[in-house]
What does this fold into?
Amino acid sequence: MFIGRHEVSLDSKGRIHLPAKVRDVLTNVYEVPLVVTVSDYCLTGWPKAEWMERYNAVDALPHTPELVDLLRALSENAEEVPLKNGRILISARLREYAQIEKEAVIVGCMKKIEIWDKTRHAEKCGNISPAELSGRLRELGF
It folds into this structure.
């Protein structure tokens, strides 16, 4: 499982060096490559088998024009990114979507990772107070 928060930098070619813990999970639990796609204010990196499982579940639904559009959007906004020398290449198009320029944050979300622009992550995810987080976690049994 992917867990934790890792601050990383992009090089001039748009590559991110994946932290050792993320690489270990990716190579020892899942099979490379990672499928990186657009998500809610960030990018999401799924091990290919996990991404295909989710895509196939949506594809199995009754096909309506809206679902066909969604399937197209899922496919055209996803890219297989091989792991090379511990790094993955994030395309300019995906970096632009997530507004990732130089500094990024990788967040482990169990079966996937999220890749955030560092500033955007702070704006979107840093608004919960410790007291509010504590209360929410207690409600969920953590």
